[in-house]
Design brief:
It holds the Pfam family HGLS. The chain is of the alpha+beta class. Helices cover 41% and strands 18% of the residues.
Amino acid sequence: MVETWELRARFAAALAKMYGDEVPAYNTLVDVTMQVNRDFAAEHPDSAERLGSLARVSAERHGAIRLGTLDELRDVATVFGGFGMFPVGYYDLRLTDSPIPVVSTAFRPTDPAELARNPFRVFTSVLTGSDSRFFDTDLERRITGFLRRRTLFSPELLQWARQANREFGLPEPEATQFVEAATSAFRLGTDPIDAGWYRELAAISPVAADIAGQGSTHVNHLTPRVLDIDELYRRMTERGIIMIDRIQGPPRWNGPPLLLRQTSFRALAEDRRFRRPDGSVTTEPVRVRFGEVEARGIALTPSGRAIYDRLIARPENAEWGSEFPHTEDGLDDAGLAYFTYRNEGTVVVRDPIVYEDFLPASAAGIFASNLDSVTGFVSDAPGAEYGQDRLEGAIDRTIEDPFELYRAQQEASRALLSPANNHSRLQTLPPSNTEDSP
């Protein structure tokens, strides 16, 4: 029996190999990321593994895919469920400064032990095709008809996924077949794309064209984790790779890393085949896929997140050092971040909980920075409702609240403390090198 975590690890590795073959610059990004991580660990031996072992950070990835319908979301939830990945968080990218016609969730392990074994995540967006702020009635009808004619996930793939979810793994050869079928479902399509249809959608939103302009879906980016994202940005630029204009998320400051910082190299021109009205097929460049990289920090409580949201809304005048404590002790004492606690002799040791989720403003910023053209609402008509409850109804599963997952992890660790220990003897110590979990 190949256990769920190993299926997930195989799936992440297979996607990375496939994506590296499709987008060779991704391999360069991974190589530079690994170099930065090794150098950072050598220069900061006492703190480099504070937010996860080097082995975990080096293996860590998150992917991103885009789907066209809630039915496709239901099927992908089945597929990811077979890998022990479940929906966490709801993100409405229509409500950002650069409105994009999608709503999103992220599929990932929710158990800390499973995250430690393999923390693969996939940020999954769904086109809001009924939102009349982007699509008029005629275009909505044609989008719906086009998407109904395609099938992204085979019956065999869905069957293996259900079995893996039910049995917490698969025997061979089904395990290998499952991973291969799931990987193939996200391979870049090679069939010619209807040029007129693609351009009509792209005029509304390049993201809409990427989702509903072709008969398949694909990985949009696969993101490694880096320990020093500023150094990564510098080294990639030195190699002549064009990066987006800035690092998304909190700034670099003299306190503990918070939440999530992201950047990417600019989307590269990839040749795609287009069919003209006369039936001829031409090859033209399309820019929709890019190389994202992320640096993860400490998960913030709702109180901490409120401060973050306020500061990020006014980046020019934000004073992070005056709003957030400069130490983990201060963050914990103020109830601004999540930690776990463990007994070590007569002392209670505090460990930060890594932020495992996403920031909608950063996601939208990454999307927008990599598009040749950015469009927003094209109509002031009322937008269709694509709330969290509608997504949950489609997949017949609750979308987990990230704050609740972090809070439960923190409280579970407190419950295991020895009664003889108390927070007056609490210390902040780096984890041992043998621990993989943050």
